[in-house]
């Protein structure tokens, strides 16, 4: 999704040609699916982890270009700002040992990354929003040197007819500001999970992924602060949505038709419906003609990469050229530790598998509007949220996760073939976190109060705990 483009200037004709190719590829995708082109029936897991480069004062360190040259690892790539990078790993088929393999891969990559960072007098940090970041750090001078990001910024502002981006977030404190660019997006770093699924079941998995967003996020919140203000438990959610605020396309005035969105509804049959929605309702932001063959849907995939659904459908190809559909679950923040993140992955993979494989369609039991309301309640309140579940009853998020969500996740991971010991190890981390009530967000707020509001002292303590590897529920406030 971070695909680079070779130029930054585009004519009206470029947009018309791209639109035509996008329409052709969307029609071709429909035919490809009907003809059985998606024959890969495996379940394959993957992830993307966004991280921060910091100096020893805990400030963002805009050196990712030199850092990536020194690291020389194709699996670590730039992000929007010069102080962010993204860590990737080869996908792994679901089955026994998959979570342990994910953790091992993450730890090995992080170790290499930290060694290079230390050689540059820097440190790599994993946190949803960096508490020490300042508004002035998020300037165009700190945008990564990629044409893709320049064009995205320019096109967003052009489609807004030059209107500044407005940020309004209210929590314990309030944040109201205006921005002339999209750089606030760089303040939101995440742990994105991928799951390749059989095409004939992809609709059920997509809807189940939407339903899973709220309990998953409630258990994992880690972004309560921005510019010294105590806002939502997962402030990434409103900040990302508002920092790339566009919508109301092609005669649709619905609030849900935005570049960053939970969506308009469940899919009726297949996530391919969302690619039709992309064509119909979302103007192109990156009109770069693609050289790849039309059978790989290059224009469709590039366009999809500039629409940030919280659960995003992706079309991919394996090394042998076999096409597949996978889902990108985007709600989780980066951090607090590798163990916490792999535990969150276990919760998602198990829960979505169990929900999607129920004898009945679970989306028929939970109206989409309720699933969406659950998501924003979880982002705002974390474990203190009240969530409506499939039986129509409202539960405290903590009780729902302990009594309903974790058993489903255990069942789903077992159905994937994971042994009980592996399941209990990772889901046990989630259970202990939920029972303690100490998420990354609550620890940050509690520690901040303990050190008299000194965000630098709190961040130093956060990094010390992160380096220890102990899950966040064991951290001392």
Describe this structure in words.
This protein has 477 residues and is an alpha+beta fold. The protein has one domain (12-42, 135-184, 199-317, 337-474): Creatine Kinase, Chain A, domain 2, CATH 3.30.590. Helix content is 42%, strand content 15%. The protein is built from 14 helices and 16 strands. The strands form 5 sheets. Strands 1, 2, 3, 4, 5, 8, 13 and 14 form an 8-stranded antiparallel sheet that branches. Strands 6-7 form a two-stranded antiparallel sheet. A hairpin with a 5-residue loop joins strand 13 and strand 14. Helix 5 (202-218) runs parallel beside helix 10 and helix 11 (397-415) packs antiparallel against helix 12 (420-436). The longest helix is centred in the N-terminal third of the chain and has 23 residues, at 12-34. The mean pLDDT is 94.
